[in-house]
Amino acid sequence: MNHRFLGIVFIGLLILGVWLVSAIFGQKFTDFDRVALTTSNAGLNLPEKADVKIRGVIVGQVMSAESEGDGAKLELGIKPDSIGQIPRNVSAAILPKTLFGEKYVDLTVPEQPSSKPLQAGDAIKQTDLPVEVEKVLNDLYPLLRAVQPAELNYTLNALAEALEGRGDKLGEGLVTLDGYLKRMNPELPALLDDLRLLASVTDTYADVFPQLADTLRNTTKTGNTLVSKEQKLNAFLVDLTSFSDTTTGFLNDNGNNLIRLSQLSEPIVALLARYSSTFPCMLEGLVKQVPRLASTFRGYIFHIDLELLPNQPRGYTRADTPVYGASNAPNCAGLPNPPIPYPKFPNLDDGVDGIGKGGQRATPGFAAGGTATEAAATSIGQPNRSRMSVGPSGTPSQKALINSLLAPSLGVPVDEMSDVSTLLFAPAFSGTEVSVR
């Protein structure tokens, strides 16, 4: 009996020792100040009683983990002798001890720690800076399953051979790339604005693309036309070259003359500009005369109606020398519908006395009631030497007399005088006395 009892006591002590070791290892006899930590779903993968560290020192453990919405809520147990040394604004991150090792909660002290210590019941925020390796592995797992191991091994070996001995150059390239990225980062807002503007410009191009396509098609037709007319186009270019050479020679020979012509044309152009307002009425008046002129020359025969003036115009004298002194303002003189007879002829400074213009060019003797002899003497401008009476015209002797009077004035022989002269001047001489020198 004693041996059995001792055996039972030994087994009991052995079990009690194992339990004590387990309880001590599990810190069942340790008191903790509990704080809350809200984290992502990765917090649910923490093992039971995972370590809570700060600056590499274990200050507590994870007491429990519960799912809460899109994340997890952890209850951390902090040792009472350590919680007073942890600032209140501490943050937490879930990190692995190794690449595939056990995870733990790492408390990070900020650059400006709070003066108040962490207390039981406080809530700790999770930092977003560390990269969750578990998430990376979870995302990489489907890719690794899709890739065949042999092909992956071949790719990795080729990549290793390509990078072997090129670490320095690769590092320099990464440093250069980092420099480019640092210089590009400040320009990213402007780049985004340019991309937005590019979208607007693209929309504009999309609207005008049909017209652009039509233009390109028309350009193709034009190109085909030029190809089909190549010989004519070449001939045109050759002729154009020859014309250019001729024009160059003409300009070289007459350049100074053209400049002089432009200088001499300046006053003429100025005069035309001054009287330009009369051009429309003058041209319209000429247009209205076209039917009359067509009637006058109908059948290629000149048709006129001759009327004898009651007061014969006086002759011109040496005092009536033409001059260019007119300075009157532009005047259409009733054109395109002038009154007939014109009421008053303008007294222009053309060198002719006013009484010898238009309807005023009447022989003074006739205008004042003088005789035909005085009128004839005045028109000749010389004293009377002999007088000759001219009767009714039409006989050969009368034609010969009129031709003998007109031939010296016209500077032609008497026998070359036309019958028209008798027709025109006989009424003027009829019933008058002519003084002959």
Could you describe the 3D structure shown?
This protein has 437 residues and is an alpha/beta fold. Among the domains are: 1-28; 31-130, no CATH class; 275-361, no CATH class; 363-437, no CATH class. It is built from 12 helices and 9 strands. It has helices at 2-25, 80-83, 133-146, 149-163, 167-184, 188-228, 230-274, 279-296, 364-367, 372-380, 396-410, 419-429; strands at 33-39, 51-54, 57-68, 71-78, 91-96, 103-108, 123-126, 387-389, 433-435. A hairpin with a 2-residue loop joins β3 (57-68) and β4. The longest helix has 45 residues, at 230-274. The radius of gyration is 64 Å and the shape is rod-shaped. The termini are far apart. 9% of the residues are buried.
Radius of gyration: 64 Å
Number of strands: 9
Structural class label: alpha/beta
Measured as a percent range, the helix fraction is 40-55%
- The pLDDT mean sits at 77
